[in-house]
Specification:
Strands 4, 5, 7, 8, 9, 10, 11, 12, 13 and 14 form a 10-stranded mixed β-sheet that branches. The chain is of the alpha/beta class and 403 residues long. Helix content is 37%, strand content 17%. The chain contains 13 helices and 15 strands. It binds D-gluconic acid and magnesium ion (MG). The site of magnesium ion has 4 residues, from loops.
Length: 403
């Protein structure tokens, strides 16, 4: 058996913070798992180092399911983002090891390719609809088949997801949370004209997406969905906080615009009512925050029963290790929908050399055995952890508002 003899956590910040678990076996094979939880990185590092790694030593790395169950059922404190991210890192690293030992790219072990590549969407953003559409044209010229549109809201000083840095922007941008001001009324007025102009300029052969970042009430989301119907968006993402799944019933009653949710979910239990009641069309759970490849496959299998497709979160805080996991997963499941792809910086790509590549609007995981991602530990050591937070937002009267 490939006996686990060591495991350790590497924290590095090549432009942003990443937490990576490296598991090593007696025969020298090692696997990598992403353990990055944006803004709470060191909580997962401690969970792994202090509580999980000691339990791994001496185990058979091939027993992926048993180790998953041991960490999930055995913890007593089930679920939660910190626990599930830690379990995810172990799970990803073990799949990496198993596929390396099999001498296969992971997607082959997961059942083989169901498609030629994984369709991705990029982020076009700009201060004005004109700027956003110009960015979208750039993505289209690069071959993207799906593009997310986010524009500045007239009358608001800053808007989350809109940045000067364009393709490489980093949302976690300050060592204490920046406070942005939000107005739902101003926002709701700005999105339909953006989509109208975008269809006019970009035509109908490209999928257009939009992220609401949980900021609307269900009835407001219903109205926006209805207003956008003529422009046929691919999806509306995180329309309202999903803590209460019943909210989505109200949205569904009012619009046929497809709905996506789940980037903050950490287990199948968060997704279950939304999937079973067919209240959503795309489930955005990730390998890193929802218990690894093992648990993500379980969520996708449940979703497939109800015609819900996947649309995994793929912002810059999901490391290249997680991106690779999503590509092997996405290539191998029947109900893949789309994969988010926010490009990492050159510094990040150098710390995590990888086999995946982009062509014709799709990513392909490549043919290297395992996940196909490595970690240059010497280089990683040159980028020490630096605390960084996502911004928060308040209404114009100062009330704290939803993410
Ligand atoms: C998205 C997002 C991100 C997240 C960020 C949180 O890409 O869809 O909503 O911008 O807010 O990744 O960690
Ligand atoms: Mg989002």
């Amino acid at each position: 058996m490939p006996k686990i003899i060591a495991a350790r956590v590497v924290v590095t910040s090549p432009g942003r913070n990443f937490v990576t678990l490296k598991i090593e076996c007696e025969d020298g094979t090692y696997g990598l798992g992403d353990a990055t939880l944006n803004g709470r990185e060191l909580a997962v590092e401690s969970y792994l180092t202090d509580h999980v790694v000691p339990c791994l030593i001496g185990r058979d790395a091939h027993q992926i399911e048993d180790i998953w169950q041991f960490l999930y059922r055995g913890a007593y404190w089930r679920r939660g983002p910190v626990t599930m991210t830690a379990i995810a890192a172990v799970d990803m690293a073990l799949w990496d090891i198993k596929a390396k030992l099999a001498g296969m790219p992971l997607y082959q072990l997961l059942g083989g390719a169901c498609r030629t590549g994984v369709m991705v969407y990029g982020h076009a953003n700009g201060e004005t609809p004109e700027d956003t559409i110009a960015e979208a044209q750039r993505y289209k010229a690069l071959g993207y088949k799906a593009i997310r549109l986010q524009s500045g809201v007239p009358g608001l000083a800053s808007t989350y997801g809109v940045s000067k840095d364009k393709m490489f922007y980093e949302p976690a941008d300050a060592d204490l949370p920046t406070e942005n001001v939000w107005s739902t009324e101003k926002y709701l007025r700005s999105v339909p004209p953006l989509f109208a102009a975008a269809r006019e300029a970009l035509g109908w052969d490209v999928h257009l997406l939009h992220d609401i970042h949980h900021r609307l009430t269900p009835i407001e989301a219903g109205r926006l969905g209805k207003d956008l119907e003529p422009y046929r968006p691919f999806w509306l993402e995180d329309a309202t906080p999903a803590d209460n799944p019943a909210s989505f019933r109200l949205i569904r009653q009012h619009t046929t615009t497809p709905l996506a949710v789940g980037e903050v979910f950490n287990s199948i239990w968060d997704a279950k009512p939304l999937i079973e009641e067919q209240l959503i069309d795309y489930i955005r759970c990730t390998a890193v925050h929802a218990g690894g490849i093992t648990h993500l496959r379980r969520i996708a299998a449940l979703a497939d029963l109800y015609n819900v497709r996947t649309g995994c979160h793929g912002a810059t805080d999901l490391s290249p290790v997680c991106m690779a996991a999503h590509l092997h997963f996405g290539l191998s499941i029947p109900n893949f929908g789309v994969q988010e792809y926010m490009r990492h910086t050159e510094e990040t790509d150098a710390v995590f050399p990888h086999a995946y590549s982009f062509a014709d609007g799709m990513l392909h995981p490549g043919e290297a055995p395992g996940l196909g991602v490595d970690l240059d530990e010497g280089l990683a050591a040159k980028y020490p952890y630096a605390r960084a937070y996502l911004p928060v937002n308040r209404l114009e009267d100062g009330s704290m508002h939803n993410w």
